[in-house]
Amino acid sequence: MLRRQKQLFILTVICTVFLLCLSASHGIISADETLPAETEEKAVIDSRTDKLLRAMGDYLKSSEQFSFHAEITFDDLISRGQKIQYAFTSDIAVHRPDRVYAERRTDLGRKRFWYDGKNMTLMDVTLGVYATEPVPADIDAAMDYLMKKYGFSPPLVDFIYSDPYRTLIENVEYGFYVGLHRIRGIRCHHLAFVQKDIDWQIWIEDGKQMVPRKFLITYKTLPESPQFSAALSEWDLDAGLPDALFDIDLTSTEDFEKIEFMTITETASEETGTGQQNE
């Protein structure tokens, strides 16, 4: 990876946006928020809310492979204190236990992500660069590894874990049932949850197909309380996903430049001016 322009660009643009796509329990909760075992308090969640969230998680967990489409908006706070909203779309495909593909499209460009059980590859189609990293051999371990070392994961990562309910509920302090509301004409159970630094809401389809239809995060401790919102559609839990979808053909990258990822430590060093600046 080029150590200055391209390295900083791919990690501040690609990874920042991917990080904004992380769900409530992984991308925005720091380790120091976990209370010691002897003082930990049990989350206060009414039984109806807990049952619905668990049912949604079990429904996703029951599918060996699935795909869905997401239309995402998120707020960015510019230097003058004004919130600017950006939008992009993502298509995500999962083949448990060890394959993920995600593609993101915006007016500014296109990004692609592959995980094949051995390696993770992230490509910026617009810039013509890509990076590859060996990772653990199952989805849960691989996503945890990426988050810990590089600070990013694919969009809406909590829904692709082996147990979405456990992942979502991990840091919740309080949760309640809001009501039956429609998302794009589909009647959904509207649930709301509170965590230390964020509030988040989820709309779960009312019926046999208990999939999430909308997901909203409010970053309540950040200036102006920016939000991340995703409308989820085109769910296919019987998807016959081809193996080729998850296997990047590196011969097709001949016109792309291979670069390297910066770790979280390296990124912090660059930002504080203490890192080595290699060309």
Shape: globular
Radius of gyration: 19 Å
Indicate the low-confidence ranges by residue numbers: 1-39, 271-279
Q: How many beta strands in the DSSP annotation?
A: 13
Between the first and last Cα atoms, what is the distance in angstroms? 9 Å
> What's the mean pLDDT score?
82
Largest sheet: 13 strands, mixed
**Number of helical runs?**
5
Strand numbers in spatial order across the main sheet: 1-8-9-10-11-12-2-3-4-5-6-7-13
How would you describe the overall organization of this protein?
The chain has a 13-stranded mixed sheet, with helices on one face. The chain is of the alpha+beta class. The longest helix is centred in the first third of the chain and has 16 residues, at 5-20. The termini are close together. A hairpin with a 2-residue loop joins β8 and β9 (186-194). The protein has helices at residues 5-20, 47-61, 139-150, 164-169, 264-272, and strands at residues 44-45, 65-77, 83-95, 99-106, 109-115, 119-124, 129-134, 174-183, 186-194, 199-205, 212-218, 227-236, 257-258. Mean pLDDT is 82; it is low at 1-39 and 271-279. Helices cover 21% and strands 36% of the residues.
Which terms summarize this structure?
279 residues; alpha+beta; 13-stranded mixed β-sheet; 13 strands; 36% strand; disordered C terminus
Layout of secondary structure:
Layout: H1 5-20, E1 44-45, H2 47-61, E2 65-77, E3 83-95, E4 99-106, E5 109-115, E6 119-124, E7 129-134, H3 139-150, H4 164-169, E8 174-183, E9 186-194, E10 199-205, E11 212-218, E12 227-236, E13 257-258, H5 264-272
Parallel strand pairs: 1-8, 7-13
Antiparallel strand pairs: 2-3, 2-12, 3-4, 4-5, 5-6, 6-7, 8-9, 9-10, 10-11, 11-12
